[in-house]
Amino acid sequence: MSQLREYIEKHPSETQRVLGIDYDQLMELIINAENLYDRQKQHQESQKTRIIKPGSGRPPKLTIADQILLTHRIPTSPTHLSNSWSPIWNWRINR
């Protein structure tokens, strides 16, 4: 479990400040994403012709919930960036 997830689970009232959505919305998002991931994985497995046993391969390093938390925090505009990043952001936009 990531440090961010641990923090959010210990302090659910801080979720709005940290992520921009409240704790209930986050839990609903995680549950829906996990269900969608399971359905897609089952569909992919039903389409495969297997040569190697299922379950082989490298396990994922991050859970679905941790992936959601990390991707939800990606800044999407210069207003979300700190002052140290704004010159880089402006350089990329003006290119």
Question: Which features would summarize this protein structure in a list?
Answer:
59% helix, mainly alpha, 95 residues
Structural notes for this entry:
It contains five helices and no strands. With 95 residues, it is mainly α. It has helices spanning 3-10, 15-19, 23-47, 64-72, 86-94.
Question: Topology, pairings included?
Answer:
Elements: H1 3-10, H2 15-19, H3 23-47, H4 64-72, H5 86-94
- What share of the residues does DSSP label as strand, in percent? under 5%
What is the gyration radius calculated from CA atoms? 18 Å
Question: What's the tally of helices?
Answer: 5
Global structural class? mainly alpha
- Can you give the mean pLDDT? 77
Distance between the termini: 39 Å
Helix content: 55-70%
**What pattern of helices and strands is seen along the backbone?**
HHHHH
Q: Spans with pLDDT under 50 lasting ≥5 residues? A: 80-86
Major β-sheet annotation: none
